[in-house]
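Figure 6 in text form: structure in, sequence out.
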C-alpha cells in the first residue's frame, strides 16, 4: 500500500499498524471461538481488536482502550428497512422503539433508567441496512449492559403487550410527523426512492415507513419480524473501552450463550437501480424555495469504484472549489448547490441538488440545464492533482479524528464487521483512496454519470406546480392492501435460564476519574490560555473565544456580528475563499468561525504535524479579512432567503416567539443572523467598524487540547498573531424583562401543520457552575431532564402525543430562562398543554420524591466519567473554567452540592420557579383549527405575529 506523506507522519506519531489473523488461542469459555485478531504492529494505521464467535452464531468483537474508565457496548443487527416486505414498511424502525419497552426481566422504561442511573448515555438507530443499539457507561457498569442487551435479544417477545405496541406506534407516527411531514422537503427522499427503484425494491420505501403501512401494523406481524431477524446469528456485539478480553468473554458467554440461533440469514443481492431514460417527478410542499435534483444510479457500498465516485462528487459539489459552487452559488444563481455520492449496502447514487436564487430569475427547467452544463464541464476540465490530494488528505484526517472516542472506534468496528466481515478497514480504505488516479475518476464519470439517465425531481411551493422542471413522466406504482401477504410464521425460540436473570447485576466500585491535567499562561497580547495534554491521537484542537458576539450589536444592527463571523470564513487579503479552503483541506485541517450571543468563536482542528501551517492560516483569517463586497452581497442574499425559508419551520417560529416574549425589543430578542430590516440596511462599513472595535485579543480566551507538551505548544500559540493588539470596549448590556401576560397562550399561525410546537417559558436565574443555576438543573432532572423524566414518560410513553418532551434551565452569566417544550400531534395540542400544566403544578407543589432524588444523584454523579473523554469534550469543560474563572476543583464543589442538596432545598427551587401562572405558553400551528380547542383551557389566547 502506498502512503502519502501525511499518512506516514501519522503512523510515526501513532505507532500502530494493520491486522493479522492469529491461531494463538488462550483458554476461552466453553462455546467461544477466536476467529481473528487485529494486532498493533509497525507498518499500518489500524484499530486493534479480537473477534470471537459463540456457538449460537453471535459475533463478538473486543477492543481494549485503557485511556478512559469507560466502556461502549454496541449491538448491531443486520436488519434494516431493506429486510421488510411490501406493505409492511417501517417495521425495523418500529422495532428500534419497541426494544426499549422492556423484556422478560427488564421492566417497561427500565432500560433507559438503568443506563441513566449508571451515568451513561444510550440510543438506537435504524437505516435501510442495519439497526444498532448502543450505550456508553462507566466501565464498572459493563455487566449490567450485557444483561440488558441479552435480555432484549433472547427474552423479549413475552413482554410485548398491545398497550406498548399502540403507544410506540403513536410515537413513531409522531416522529414521522416531526421529522418528515412537518419539515420542509421532508418527503423528498421518500418520493425520490419510489421513482428511482423498481416496485418492491428494498430501497423503494422509507426507513420510517409509509403512514398507511404503519396504520396496518399489528402485533403478530411484528413478532414474526423479530423471530426472523433478531437472532444472535444476525448480530454483532462490539465492546470497547477499559476492558480486557479475558474478563469480558465469560460475561458474554454467561448472558448470550443460552439464546438460540434464529433462522439462517443470507446476504441480500446487490441491487443498484437501473434506468433506461430520464424520469421526471415533482411534488408540492410547504417550502419557500423550490428544489431541483438529479440522481444517477451507480454501484454499491464497498465496490471498487466507490472512492473514485466520491472524489467525483467532491469535484462537482463539495466545498468552495467545486464546480457547482463556482458556477451557481458564487454568482448567486443558486442559494445552495451541491453534489455527492451516497452509498448503501445494496445500491449507491450520485446526486446533484440546487435551490435557485429568486433574484436570478432562473426557473427549474433552466436550472436543470445549468446542472447538465456542469456535468459536461467535468469532461472539459478533467481531474487535477489537487482534486485527488485534498480528497485523500480529508480521508486520512477523518480516519485519525475518528479514533478520538471509544464510541467512534466501536462504531467503526461494528459497521465494518456487519457489512464486510472485517472489523478494521482503516488501512483498506486509505489504500483504496491512495490508488485512485485521475483516469479512474474520469472513467467512473463516463461509466455512471455522463449522458446517463437520471431521476430529475422538482419540489415547489404549494400552489406553484407550474414551476417544475418538466411534466412528470413517471408515476410510481402504489401498494394495494389486497396484495398483502401473511408473514412467515416462525416457532418461538425459548432461551434457557442457567442463573437468576431477574437479579440486576451489581456494579463494581466506581472507577477513579482523572480530571484533565491543565496548564495556564497568558500571551503577550492579553489572550488567556488554558491547555491540556491528550496523547490518544496526534491531533490538536483549539477554541479561541473573543468577546465580540451578537450582544455587542445594537438592535438596529442585529446580525452584524454573525455576518462578520461568516465573512471571516471567506476571502482574505492574500487568499481567495477557494485558495484558503484548498490550503486547509490539503493539511487535513479545519477552521470554523462563528458568533454566539457573547463571543466570536474560532474552532481549529488540526493534525499536530500540520499545526504550524494551520495557525498561519488562522492568523490570515483573523488579521487580514478581505470583507469583499462580492462575499458580503452573496451572504446577505443567502441569509434573507434563509429567513424566508425559516418561516416554514414551526420550531424556528416557536423559538422566535419565545425570544420576543422573554427579551422584547432588546438585542437578545432578535435573531442572531439579523432580521429582514437589519439585513436589508446592513453595510460593509458596519461590518468593518464592528471588526475594528471588538475583534481584539485582550480579554480573549484560548483553550487547547493537544498531544504536545506546554514547552512545544506555547511557542506555536504565541507566534500565531503577535502583532494583534488592543482591547475591546466592555459590554454594557441591559436585558430588562418585557411586560407579557403570564398564564396566557400566545398563538402563532403556521399553515399546513400536522404537528404543533409548544413552549412553556419564563425568565429565571443567570447561569453559574456551583450556585442556584446548577442546583436548579439538579431539581429539573426529574421533571424533564432525562428520558425517564415525568414530562417525557407522560407525553411520550404514556399518552403517545409526541416523539419527545423535555424541560430545562438555560442562559448565560447575565440572564437565564426556564423552558418546557415538545412537538405534538396537532389533534392533541390542548390535551398536551393540559398534561404539561399538570406536571408543572404537581412538581411545583409537591416536589421531588426521595426515590427520585436518589436516582438523580446516582445518574449525575456517575456521568462524570463521560465528560472528559474526547478533545472536544475537554475543550468544553475547560472553556467553562476560563469563562467563570475557576479551577478544576469546581467539579468537587459540584459533587458536594449534588450529595448535600436536600429534598427540601430542591423542592423550594421548584416551588419558586415552576408555577405555570408565572409562565407564558407559546403554541405554533394552524391557528384557526387550534383555537376552538385551546379555548377549552380557559386561558387568555393572544394571537401573535412575528
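Output sequence:
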Amino acid at each position: 500500500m502506498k502512503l502519502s506523506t501525511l499518512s506516514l507522519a501519522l503512523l510515526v506519531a501513532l505507532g500502530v499498524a494493520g491486522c493479522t489473523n492469529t491461531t494463538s488461542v488462550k483458554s476461552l469459555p466453553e462455546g467461544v471461538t477466536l476467529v481473528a485478531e487485529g494486532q498493533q504492529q509497525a507498518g499500518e494505521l489500524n484499530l486493534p481488536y479480537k473477534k470471537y464467535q459463540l456457538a449460537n452464531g453471535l459475533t463478538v468483537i473486543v477492543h481494549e482502550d485503557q485511556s478512559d474508565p469507560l466502556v461502549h457496548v454496541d449491538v448491531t443487527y443486520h436488519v434494516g428497512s431493506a429486510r421488510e416486505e411490501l406493505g409492511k414498511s417501517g417495521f425495523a424502525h418500529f422495532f428500534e422503539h419497541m426494544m426499549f419497552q422492556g423484556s422478560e426481566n427488564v421492566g417497561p422504561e427500565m432500560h433507559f433508567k438503568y443506563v441513566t442511573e449508571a451515568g451513561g448515555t444510550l440510543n438506537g438507530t435504524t437505516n435501510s441496512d442495519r439497526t444498532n443499539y448502543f450505550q456508553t457507561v462507566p466501565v464498572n457498569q459493563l455487566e449490567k449492559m450485557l444483561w440488558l442487551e441479552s435480555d432484549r435479544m433472547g427474552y423479549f417477545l413475552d413482554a410485548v403487550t398491545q398497550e406498548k405496541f399502540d403507544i410506540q406506534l403513536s410515537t413513531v407516527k409522531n416522529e414521522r410527523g416531526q421529522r418528515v411531514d412537518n419539515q420542509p422537503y421532508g418527503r423528498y427522499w421518500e418520493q425520490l426512492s419510489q421513482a428511482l427503484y423498481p416496485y418492491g425494491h428494498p430501497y423503494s420505501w422509507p426507513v420510517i415507513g409509509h403512514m398507511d403501512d404503519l396504520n396496518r401494523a399489528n402485533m403478530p406481524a411484528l413478532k414474526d419480524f423479530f423471530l426472523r431477524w433478531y437472532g444472535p446469528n444476525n448480530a454483532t456485539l462490539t465492546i470497547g473501552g477499559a476492558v480486557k478480553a479475558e474478563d469480558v468473554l465469560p460475561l458474554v458467554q454467561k448472558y448470550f450463550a443460552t439464546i438460540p440461533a434464529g433462522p439462517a440469514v443470507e446476504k441480500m443481492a446487490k441491487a443498484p437501480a437501473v434506468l433506461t431514460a430520464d424520469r421526471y417527478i415533482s411534488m408540492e410542499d410547504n417550502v419557500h424555495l423550490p428544489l431541483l435534483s438529479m440522481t444517477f444510479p451507480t454501484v454499491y457500498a464497498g465496490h471498487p469504484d466507490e472512492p473514485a465516485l466520491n472524489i467525483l462528487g467532491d469535484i462537482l459539489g463539495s466545498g468552495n472549489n467545486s464546480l457547482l459552487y463556482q458556477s451557481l452559488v458564487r454568482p448567486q444563481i443558486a442559494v445552495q448547490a451541491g453534489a455527492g455520492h451516497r452509498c448503501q449496502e445494496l445500491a449507491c447514487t450520485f446526486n446533484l441538488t440546487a435551490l435557485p436564487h429568486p433574484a436570478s430569475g432562473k426557473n427549474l427547467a433552466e436550472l436543470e440545464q445549468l446542472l447538465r452544463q456542469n456535468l459536461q464541464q467535468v469532461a472539459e476540465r478533467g481531474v487535477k492533482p489537487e482534486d485527488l490530494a485534498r480528497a485523500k488528505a480529508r480521508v486520512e484526517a477523518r480516519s485519525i479524528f475518528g479514533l478520538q472516542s471509544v464510541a467512534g472506534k466501536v462504531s467503526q468496528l461494528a459497521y465494518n464487521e456487519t457489512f464486510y466481515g472485517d472489523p478494521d478497514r482503516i488501512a483498506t480504505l486509505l489504500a483504496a483512496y491512495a490508488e485512485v488516479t485521475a483516469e479512474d475518476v474520469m472513467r467512473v464519470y463516463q461509466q455512471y454519470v455522463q449522458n446517463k439517465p437520471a431521476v430529475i425531481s422538482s419540489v415547489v411551493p404549494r400552489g406553484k406546480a407550474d414551476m417544475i422542471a418538466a411534466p412528470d413522466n413517471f408515476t410510481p406504482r402504489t401498494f394495494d392492501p389486497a396484495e398483502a401477504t401473511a408473514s412467515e410464521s416462525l416457532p418461538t425460540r425459548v432461551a434457557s435460564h442457567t442463573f437468576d436473570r431477574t437479579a440486576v447485576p451489581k456494579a463494581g466500585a466506581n472507577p477513579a476519574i482523572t480530571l484533565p491535567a491543565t496548564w495556564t499562561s497568558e500571551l503577550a497580547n492579553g489572550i488567556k490560555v488554558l491547555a491540556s495534554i491528550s496523547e490518544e491521537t496526534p491531533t490538536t484542537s483549539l477554541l479561541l473565544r473573543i468577546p465580540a458576539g451578537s450582544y455587542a450589536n445594537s438592535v438596529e444592527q442585529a446580525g452584524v456580528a454573525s455576518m462578520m463571523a461568516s465573512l471571516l470564513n471567506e476571502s482574505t487579503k492574500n487568499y481567495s475563499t477557494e485558495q484558503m479552503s484548498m490550503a486547509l483541506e490539503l493539511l487535513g485541517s479545519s477552521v470554523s468561525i462563528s458568533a454566539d450571543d457573547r463571543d466570536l468563536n474560532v474552532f481549529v482542528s488540526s493534525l499536530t504535524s500540520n499545526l504550524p501551517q494551520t495557525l498561519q492560516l488562522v492568523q490570515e483569517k483573523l488579521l487580514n479579512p478581505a470583507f469583499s463586497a462580492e462575499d458580503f452581497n452573496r451572504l446577505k442574499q443567502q441569509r434573507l432567503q434563509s429567513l424566508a425559508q425559516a418561516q416554514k419551520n414551526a420550531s424556528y417560529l416557536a423559538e422566535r416567539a419565545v425570544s420576543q416574549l422573554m427579551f422584547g425589543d432588546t438585542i437578545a430578542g432578535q435573531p442572531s443572523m439579523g432580521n429582514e430590516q437589519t439585513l436589508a440596511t446592513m453595510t460593509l462599513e458596519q461590518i468593518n467598524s464592528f471588526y475594528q472595535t471588538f475583534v481584539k485579543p485582550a480579554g480573549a480566551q484560548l483553550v487547547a487540547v493537544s498531544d504536545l507538551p506546554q514547552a512545544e505548544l506555547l511557542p506555536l500559540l504565541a507566534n500565531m498573531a503577535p502583532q494583534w493588539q488592543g482591547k475591546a470596549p466592555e459590554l454594557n448590556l441591559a436585558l430588562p424583562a418585557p411586560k407579557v401576560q403570564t398564564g396566557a397562550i400566545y398563538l402563532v399561525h403556521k399553515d399546513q401543520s400536522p404537528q404543533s410546537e409548544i413552549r412553556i417559558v419564563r425568565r429565571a436565574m443567570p447561569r453559574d457552575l456551583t450556585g442556584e443555576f446548577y442546583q436548579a438543573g439538579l431539581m429539573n432532572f426529574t421533571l424533564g431532564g432525562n428520558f425517564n423524566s415525568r414530562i417525557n414518560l407522560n407525553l411520550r410513553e404514556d399518552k403517545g402525543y409526541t416523539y419527545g418532551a423535555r424541560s430545562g434551565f438555560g442562559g448565560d452569566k447575565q440572564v437565564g430562562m426556564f423552558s418546557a417544550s415538545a412537538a405534538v400531534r396537532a389533534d392533541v395540542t390542548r390535551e398536551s398543554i393540559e398534561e404539561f400544566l399538570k406536571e408543572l403544578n404537581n412538581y411545583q407543589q409537591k416536589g421531588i420524591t426521595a426515590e427520585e432524588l436518589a436516582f438523580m444523584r446516582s445518574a449525575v454523579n456517575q456521568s462524570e466519567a463521560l465528560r472528559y473523554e474526547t478533545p472536544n469534550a475537554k475543550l468544553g469543560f475547560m472553556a467553562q473554567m476560563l469563562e467563570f474563572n475557576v479551577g478544576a476543583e469546581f467539579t468537587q464543589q459540584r459533587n458536594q452540592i449534588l450529595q448535600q442538596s436536600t429534598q427540601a432545598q430542591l423542592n423550594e427551587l421548584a416551588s419558586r420557579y415552576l408555577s405555570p401562572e408565572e409562565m407564558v405558553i407559546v403554541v405554533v400551528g394552524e391557528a384557526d383549527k387550534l383555537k376552538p380547542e385551546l379555548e377549552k383551557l380557559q386561558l387568555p389566547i393572544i394571537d401573535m405575529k412575528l
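Caption detail: DSSP finds 32 helices and 24 strands in the chain.
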